[in-house]
């Protein structure tokens, strides 16, 4: 691995000038490296961060990738990491004309990293430097505590996919002077729904009552409001005082363990908190990339195509570029190509905005001919896709813009699989061409980790009680025992997990009767895991 030579660096700098002239916005300083396929294989398990902490699973992944490469040799063109400065890696087999196209693609990624709001918590960090400091810290603990350090790393990584990314982002962006008082927070978020069991309509009416008082006299609103509350609910004051003695709720399970585990509070175990904080912060840093894969790759593909086709250095390489670009951005009939879907959605958004189709006037049209002929020639297409680049995640992009017009235009469909006994093969067939089915398929493919939180009312020093919010998908049962054993170690005592599982009744006569939901409780104590049913009427 070595830095780009001066010839290639000059090409990159010229690409950056042209990209800025087209409207892209990114830092001036970037670092580029030339790497071999072997370098790519060794860096990929560390998400291309050379300074990331060492972990045995990364070594296993490298060996696995070596085996794959022997069977199916590949030639990855580039990869880029979100750091300050941005660092990108280029294969040593790329010719100059290909690097120009790839430079534009990488610049698109850098622009996205540095402008999309989901990455806001990463904008001020040199993550490569932070990762190096974290690596040295973990190595120092390995030299002192040996294998116990790797146990903590492994147990923390088993739950680092459920970090409270959005809650952390909201904390960062919340304006301090807008924060309501702790008493108001407790009344609306805890006392009404949990203590009084009030429904949403009653809570809304109470919010309206407070807003009315605030509009008439902001200084006296809170005292007047709570004077009425205390007269109706004498128990409010003691409930608030008890809650005020507790720490604010953690955003995720890792943070809850760091803050509240009796085992980690012991003097001899406090070093473990530092290791867990490294794991959590690393997971939070990469969280936005997993939620913007489609829009990010679509943005980079949009700009490499737009900028390279307008670059005079494409002359003589048009056919080769067409073949390469088609391989990258062609739609998959089976499966999902994020480059292709992201690119076409951005082009679709640009067209809608250019023609004024993001208007109520257009949405009121019913006839297909009228919709096709509608064109206000607003010229707002570029502005619209820049707003998408700034504010959208994959879910927002898909949920907002995948409609029947988009699906029909690109001949998209959902595929199914079925056995063909006559030919002895599994065959694919067109299952649906409906936009709602295609949208569901795309959304189901997105990264969506489970929501698991500690129940503070049922948690004690002797028992950590976790609740899984069932969203139609059950947890992978094979993983539950190992994760609970790790949590048992980090909490220092019993751990319970309440979740919902899908039960199958093979004797059912109808499909509706075949599946049912059953709440179950896993418990782990002294590394032994048990499972029991939770009765619906249980307190």
What does this structure look like?
The chain is α+β, with helices and mostly antiparallel strands and 539 residues long. Helices cover 53% and strands 13% of the residues. It has helices at residues 6-21, 37-43, 56-71, 96-113, 127-145, 147-157, 165-173, 182-195, 200-216, 221-232, 236-244, 253-260, 262-265, 271-290, 293-309, 318-329, 338-354, 360-363, 368-373, 381-391, 394-401, 404-409, 435-444, 480-491, 511-514, and strands at 2-3, 30-35, 78-81, 86-91, 414-420, 425-432, 451-454, 463-469, 494-504, 515-525, 528-533. It has a five-stranded mixed beta sheet with strand order 7-8-9-10-11. The chain has a four-stranded mixed beta sheet with strand order 1-2-4-3. The longest helix has 20 residues, at 271-290. It starts with a strand and ends in a 6-residue tail after the last strand.
């Amino acid at each position: 691995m070595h830095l780009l030579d001066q010839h290639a660096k000059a090409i990159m700098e010229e690409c950056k000038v042209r990209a800025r002239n087209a409207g892209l916005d990114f830092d001036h300083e970037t670092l580029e490296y030339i790497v071999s396929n072997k370098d790519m294989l060794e860096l990929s398990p560390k998400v291309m961060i050379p300074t990331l902490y060492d972990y045995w699973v990364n070594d296993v992944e490298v060996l696995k990738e070596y085996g794959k490469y022997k069977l199916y040799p590949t030639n990855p063109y580039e990869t880029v990491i979100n750091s300050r400065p941005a660092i990108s890696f280029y294969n040593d087999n790329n010719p100059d004309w290909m690097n120009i196209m790839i430079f534009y693609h990488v610049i698109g990624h850098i622009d996205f990293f540095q402008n999309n709001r989901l990455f806001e918590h990463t904008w001020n960090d040199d993550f490569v430097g932070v990762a190096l400091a974290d690596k040295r810290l973990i190595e120092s603990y390995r030299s002192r505590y040996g294998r116990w350090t790797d146990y903590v790393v492994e147990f923390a990584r088993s739950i680092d996919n459920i970090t409270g990314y959005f809650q952390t982002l909201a904390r960062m962006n919340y304006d301090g002077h807008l924060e309501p008082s702790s008493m108001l927070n407790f009344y609306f978020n805890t006392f009404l729904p949990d203590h009084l069991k009030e429904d949403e309509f009653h809570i809304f009416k109470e919010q309206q009552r407070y807003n009315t008082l605030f509009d008439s006299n902001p200084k006296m609103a809170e005292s007047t409001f709570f004077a009425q509350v205390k007269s109706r609910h004498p128990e409010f004051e003691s409930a608030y005082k008890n809650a005020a003695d507790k720490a604010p709720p953690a955003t995720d399970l890792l943070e809850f363990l760091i803050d509240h585990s009796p085992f980690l509070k012991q003097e001899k175990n406090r070093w473990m908190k530092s290791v867990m904080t490294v794991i959590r912060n690393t997971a939070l840093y990469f969280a936005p990339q997993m939620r913007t894969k489609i829009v990010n790759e679509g943005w980079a593909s949009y700009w490499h195509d737009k900028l390279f086709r307008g670059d005079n250095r494409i002359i003589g390489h048009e056919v080769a570029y067409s073949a390469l670009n088609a391989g990258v951005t062609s739609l998959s009939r089976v499966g999902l190509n994020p480059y292709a879907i992201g690119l076409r959605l951005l082009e679709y958004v640009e067209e809608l905005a250019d023609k004024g189709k993001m208007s109520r006037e257009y949405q009121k049209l019913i006839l297909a001919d009228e919709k096709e002929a509608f064109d206000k020639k607003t010229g707002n297409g570029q502005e619209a896709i820049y707003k998408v680049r700034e504010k959208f995640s994959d879910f927002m992009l898909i949920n907002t813009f995948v409609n029947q017009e988009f699906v029909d235009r690109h001949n998209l469909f959902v595929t199914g699989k079925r056995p063909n006994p006559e030919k002895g093969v599994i065959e694919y067939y067109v299952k649906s061409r409906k936009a709602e089915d295609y949208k569901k398929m795309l959304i189901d493919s997105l990264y969506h980790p489970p929501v698991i939180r500690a129940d503070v009312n049922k948690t004690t020093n002797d028992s950590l009680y976790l609740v899984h919010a069932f969203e139609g998908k059950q947890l992978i049962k094979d993983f539950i025992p190992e994760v609970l054993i790790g949590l048992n170690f980090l909490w220092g005592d019993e751990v319970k997990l309440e979740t919902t599982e899908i039960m199958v009744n093979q004797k059912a006569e109808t499909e509706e009767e075949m599946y049912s939901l059953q709440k179950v409780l896993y418990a782990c104590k002294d590394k032994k895991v048990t499972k029991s049913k939770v009765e619906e009427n249980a307190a």
